[in-house]
Amino acid sequence: MHGYGGGSYGTHGPGGGTHGPRGTRERARQYALLPLRIFLGVTFVYAGLDKLTDGAFLSATGPGSIGETMNAVRDTSAVPALVDLALKSPEGFGHAIAFGELAVGLGTLAGLWARIAALGGVLISLSLWLTVSWRTEPYYYGNDLVYLMAWLPLLLAGAAEFSADALLASRRRRIR
Description:
By secondary structure, this protein is mainly α. It is 65% helix and 2% strand. It contains 8 helices and 2 strands, in the order ββαααααααα. It has helices at 20-31, 34-52, 66-73, 80-88, 90-110, 114-131, 143-157, 164-175; strands at 11-12, 18-19. The protein has a two-stranded antiparallel sheet with strand order 1-2. A hairpin with a 5-residue loop joins strand 1 (11-12) and strand 2 (18-19). Residues 1-16 have low confidence and may be disordered.
């Protein structure tokens, strides 16, 4: 196994594995993003399904509707033009967010096109932070900013372990 500086960590035994504290640290580093990937994947799948099964959310008007929410945050959002765009078709925007969250969550859980899924998570979280939770005070009470920051490591690193991306990469290496 190779560390950041390109050197080997641990003692390589007959099976090619690593032993000792350095091997343990390297293994922990190898799996470090897996809990974050599972959490974000499950959360976004749940959020997407929750929106798709909530008739009130997918309405243009009424309590709990996406239209009502967008109208409520229009004047306090960082980018009112985004809200105006959503208000042109609140039902369409609600469906887009719900299906986007579902696709991002499933892609993240499967580790399929993980960086693209993470980019989707970044874009959804960024758009919600700039519109819905922009005026939340103090800022750290707004969960959209936290989700935005949580997606960044997955965007940068992808899904190395237990992922369709790793499986596909392994198959490509064997074919060569």
